[in-house]
Amino acid sequence: MKPYKTANQDTGVIAYETGKDSITIQFRDGSVYLYTNKSAGADAIAEMKILAKKGEGLTTYINQHVREHYEFKLR
Predict the structure, then answer these.
(1) Could you tell me where the DSSP H helices lie in the chain?
(2) How many domains are there within the chain?
(3) CA 72 – CA 24 distance, rounded (Å)
């Protein structure tokens, strides 16, 4: 996974990995979730990928738009 680079040290997201139709997110508490086009929608996944690469706004986006729309929890 790639470190989520952000200036905000209080962010919940610490790492991510993108796939063709998905993004996997690791949170500060150690939990890891897989979000897919099927579970969260293609537009949401595309936006999450953009925010992850920018290192800005991903935690807020997840909390406001896709919080429970994950495919499954990996750990």
Answers:
(1) 37-40, 42-54, 58-61
(2) 1
(3) 10
Q: In terms of Cα–Cα distance, which of 2, 16, 6, 1 is closest to 55?
A: 6
Strands (E), the chain: 2-3, 13-19, 22-27, 32-36, 72-73
Give the global pTM. Answer: 0.94
Closest to 2 measured CA to CA, from 47, 57, 50, 52: 52
- Where b means 16+ CB within 10 Å and e means fewer, 26-65 reads bbeeeebbbbbbebbeeebbebbbebbeebbbbbebbeee
- pLDDT, tens digit, for every residue of 6-36? 867 788 999 999 999 999 999 999 999 999 9
